[in-house]
Design brief:
Layout lengths: L1 H22 L7 H7 L1 H20 L7 H26 L3 H27 L12 H5 L6 H5 L5
Helix pairs in contact: 3-4, 4-5
């Protein structure tokens, strides 16, 4: 009977402990507590999520426009660097690396904006310019200035 009571007390303690742990969700836990108790696991999860998001977003179909395709793949690449740097800021402890992460965030965001602005300045690929139209190509080549000014006749 004494063994059954001890077994029951142990089982009850285990149930109470598991119940208490189940109620303690990441929402209930202050960020600093999580960062100090499980930084490696949390960092790994955040970093993997950032890489998966980046790789998925970089898988774009080529448009045939090198400049636009470049930006379409580089923007998510840079955003991935920002997301990974944010994970370093959340969980990292080394001040040098944390400073580098802050610099990465600022620089990569600036480059993302610069690339987006550069693409906005590109001519619309759907608009055909006179130089590339068939009308221009079907005309005879222009005469040089020397041919125009040269005296005519024998």
């Amino acid at each position: 009977m004494k063994a059954h009571v001890l077994w029951f007390a142990g089982a009850a303690s285990l149930v109470v402990a598991l119940f208490a742990r189940a109620r303690l969700t990441p929402v209930d836990t202050p960020p600093m507590t999580m960062a100090t108790t499980m930084p490696a696991e949390n960092f790994a999860a955040d970093n993997l999520r950032a890489m998966d998001k980046m790789m998925s977003a970089m898988s774009v179909k080529s448009t045939g426009d090198t400049d636009r395709d470049f930006v379409a793949t580089m923007v998510p690449h840079h955003q991935g660097a920002v997301d990974m740097a944010l994970a370093e800021l959340r969980y990292g402890k080394d001040e040098t690396l944390r400073r580098m992460a802050q610099e990465i965030i600022v620089e990569q965001k600036q480059e993302i904006e610069a690339m987006k602005l550069a693409v906005e300045r590109l001519p619309d690929p759907k608009v055909t310019t006179l130089a590339s139209s068939n009308v221009c190509r079907s005309r005879p080549p222009a005469r040089s200035m020397r041919d125009t000014l040269a005296p005519k006749g024998p």
